[in-house]
Amino acid sequence: MSRLREVAFLVEATGTGALDRREFLRRAIATGIGGATAGLLLEACGGGGDPGDPPRGDLDLDPTDVPDEIEDRLAIYNWSDYVADDTIPRFEDEYGVEVTYDTYESNEEMLAKLQAGAAGYDVVFPTGYIIEVMIAGGLLAPIRRELLTNWGNLSPIFLDPPFDPGNAHSVPYLWGMTGVAWRTDRVATPPDSWGVFHDDRWNGKMTLLDDARDVIAAFLKLNGFSINSTSAGELEAAKRDAIEAGAHVRAFVSAPVKGQLVSGDVWIAQLWDGDTRQAAAEEPAIAFALPREGAPIYADAMVIPRSAPHKRAAHAFMDYILRPDVGAAISDATGYGTANAAAQPADPKPYPSAEELARLEFMRDLGEGTRLWDRIWTEIKSS
Ligand code: N2P
Description:
Layout: H1 3-15, H2 21-30, H3 35-44, E1 73-79, H4 87-95, E2 98-104, H5 107-115, E3 123-124, H6 128-136, E4 171-183, E5 206-208, H7 212-222, H8 232-246, E6 251-252, H9 257-263, E7 268-272, H10 273-282, E8 286-289, E9 295-302, H11 311-321, H12 324-334, E10 337-338, H13 354-357, E11 360-362, H14 370-382
Parallel strand pairs: 1-2, 1-3, 5-6, 5-7, 9-11
Antiparallel strand pairs: 4-7, 4-8, 4-9, 4-10
């Protein structure tokens, strides 16, 4: 059967209720159309739930249903330190919307909370690979492009990403890389290898991120493997090296490490480039090194959960974020590169050089491999 005919068959089968959601996704992915596309098709044909599922209340209403009026409330769930200080207050003032704002430290923390049924968030900021998972899981509402008057400000580089073809469910936000933040006044040479986390000289002065994907990625790269590996043998090598690093570092820590670098308690930290720039704004001796073995690069985007109670305000907020001045202020405050091409930050973040790009890799959904990664992460954290 040709791929197209196979897809047409799947759509038809789902429409008649002959296939449940899981089976649909399994078969769709087997045809090679990808989980993201499968999720879209499933939504297009209204197959959002197993036929035998109990009614899910308003989740069964048309998820494209966005009211005409902007609601007076908005609940945001974002990475910590991922907007400018005035981003939210300005939106509240201009739009007369009261915003509640919660933060998370990793995609996995965010996803676990949403999967556990945390309804009520209107805008969330996941990384590409998790958007893939969320689309396939039916967790996201479609983006109503006509409500985003500033869409044209986005750089084509970030549009139509592999994790969300056509940007049906996501609005590009910021991009960054994971590398090593270090104190140039305490450490003589740039720690440009993930092997630094095995160096006895810095025992107790180093930290790793509290983030499964980033930590395991670092030690996969140290062994010359892809950051998206699901090979048991490759992951075993990465786990061994991560556990060894665990004996040298003082903690697995994300947001609070900036303060520890500034105070001098930590000299070498696995960290994202933007957060490193935030720390360097307070202590100029802090620099960023991109390990020679390679490192993750990522693009984060704004999404609207299917269960979001304020979908019109969510669109208004995203359109506000796409304004050039708002985008520029966010890039300057967070230290991350913006997907907004019309934004003119005072301190623009350069794209990686060709030589750096050759070492960088985007994270992808691990699919069935996720369970193995979860197990390994638990072992690393408990060693
Ligand atoms: C945290 C920003 C991290 C973004 N401040 C990682 N995708």
